[in-house]
Amino acid sequence: MNTERALAEIFEASNAVRYAAIYHDGKLVSRMRESASDASQAESDKYEELIVNPALLTLVKQRGNIDCGGARFLVVRYGNFYQLVIDLPGGHVSVCFELTANPLKYADVIAKICA
What we know:
By secondary structure, this protein is of the alpha+beta class. The protein has a single domain, classed as Dynein light chain 2a, cytoplasmic (Beta-Lactamase). The chain has 3 helices and 5 strands, in the order αββαβββα. α1 (3-13) runs antiparallel to α3 (107-114). The longest helix is centred in the middle third of the chain and has 26 residues, at 42-67.
């Protein structure tokens, strides 16, 4: 996967994208829109991508696989933004949206970009 190209395409998908990260095969690449207000710290984002999001995906996938037909993604509503986290083979993609956006509208588009 060309992660830099994928990140560029994710930002092109919507002006409401604040931040995007791809964690793939042990490598993390991320990008933040310069105009994002109330953004979290880069160091905090790094640990979210390396620890929190993989753990959340593991929990949701394990539960989904019991009797829900699996799980493809999750959405977290933080105070300043929505975060969409999509499971990928070998990692995940994480995209933060302005609160005015509906991240569900972009889940399939982003998954396709990262396929």
